[in-house]
Amino acid sequence: MWFCNRSKAAAPCKIVKRLVTGLIIGGAIGSVIGKRLMEEQMEDDDENNVD
Questions:
Q1: How far is CA 29 from CA 15, 18, 23, in A?
Q2: What angle do CA 39, 20, 10 make, to 5 degrees?
Q3: Beta strands in 2-49 (DSSP E)
Q4: CA distance 22 to 39
Q5: How far is CA 6 from each of CA 1, 2, 9, rounded to the nearest angstrom?
Q6: What is the Cα–Cα distance from 33 to 27, expressed in whole angstroms?
Q7: Terminal Cα-to-Cα distance of the chain (whole angstroms)
Q8: pTM for the complete prediction?
Q9: Residue pLDDT tens, the chain, 51 long
Q10: Secondary-structure percent of the chain, ordered helix, strand, coil, rounded to 5
Q11: Which is it for the CA torsion 8, 13, 16, 18, positive or negative?
């Protein structure tokens, strides 16, 4: 029947592509955030060690 169409499952290759894309984007975001946090920590340490 036309109103009982079942949705097809995503192809395995499409799932893998989405997973890889998500890992790449997540890694890039994590890298930027981590770099910013490390820079702030270094600045805080430099300010605290001023004689």
A1: 21, 16, 10
A2: 145
A3: none
A4: 26
A5: 10, 10, 9
A6: 10
A7: 81
A8: 0.62
A9: 556 666 676 688 899 999 999 999 999 999 999 999 999 998 888 787 765
A10: 80, 0, 20
A11: negative
